[in-house]
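tool_call: predict_structure(chain=1)
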Amino acid sequence: MASTSQAPSSGARTAHPDHLGHVIFIAAAAAMGGFLFGYDSSVINGAVEAIRDRYDVGSAVLAQVIAVALIGCAIGAATAGRIADRIGRIRCMQIAAVLFTVSAVGSALPFALWDLAMWRVIGGFAIGMASVIGPAYIAEVSPPAYRGRLGSFQQAAIVIGIAVSQLVNWGLLNAAGGDQRGELMGLEAWQVMLGVMVIPAVLYGLLSFAIPESPRFLISVGKRERAKKILEEVEGKDVDFDARVTEIEHAMHSEEKSSFKDLLGGSFFFKPIVWIGIGLSVFQQFVGINVAFYYSSTLWQSVGVDPTDSFFYSFTTSIINIIGTVIAMIFVDRVGRKPLALIGSVGMVIGLALEAWAFSFDLVDGKLPATQGWVALIAAHVFVLFFALSWGVVVWVFLGEMFPNRIRAAALGVAASAQWIANWAITASFPSLADWNLSGTYVIYTIFAALSIPFVLKFVKETKGKALEEMG
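tool_result:
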């Protein structure tokens, strides 16, 4: 389901100004999947302590309930491409929208801990599908001249979804008098937090009926005339559409479907370039970034911050995440991927080390001393900023560019799977590690951030300005 890399052909290749608004609407509608990806990933942040209290579970069990969604993410990401190739991109989006809706309702009205975990897995499956189908669809419907900018809608939607979920959680907590288990609309506040996702999920489903199928999919199933009409919608009328359809057909026929066995080779099972991709994915997660989005409210409350304030800090962290992502989108093509990754690593080391230092102090009356509390808060925002302006965006750019054409799809699949597994490892281990030693946990994350610097310097090659055909 990779997007087509097409050579120039006759006719204009940019959307007319009157078509561009329509194309932006199509990309934005598809990016709603990214919004739900971010929203569903981080909304659980507001429910962690309430779930612990309601079901009276320890840190290890709690962590599995939080992290189990990532199993669904991995399955959804692994299967979305095949589903979309069989029934179409739009149908795939509609399935994801239904799964998001079902997950939101089920998570808001669980009978017990086991079915809450089941609804989390279903939501994770939808996240995995959205993480694959959104970028692929946008790439396939975007005019080449605007593909990069429209493609960035997905990442922007993810970080906005994270921020909105934290803002909604904070608002609902205030409405419930600052108690995550306080009554709200006949339910406990945390249940309403998880249930509110029904609104964007239904909107995503409705929008999927308002946008066209991918021309590439239509051509693959022999619907050439319908494909031509959609190409006219998104690229204007000054194009030879017969030539465009023929060009896409030629590109599809010339593409080699990479398989897992194509990745094998070298002295360590996989080819070296595949290990570099896996390394980038693992380092991106092992710095502990998802602790900031899954557990930040719990983290701040554990060092004495008032629950309402802890929710507000989770929201401000999400805003910093958006700012950092915008910075990355501006500079990734100007500064280059590798320098941005190195800048980010240095910034993350500083932020994480300061957090580790602050958390090493004993609590006084259940709170960190004032100086250490402010250092921890500021350092957490510094860490998220430097992650967002570098590794948050750059790793995905690298993974899309660094592999040779022949193995790109399969290698990207392995690297993405490694990322979900690493994400699960961090998410499942944090509560128990924090119970053991919160400062020590942040020392571990600091070490991984520091190790990412020599890894990038030694093994990662710059891909800025190179054609995909040059990768090898």
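agent: Confidence is low (pLDDT under 50) at residues 2-15. Proceeding to next step.
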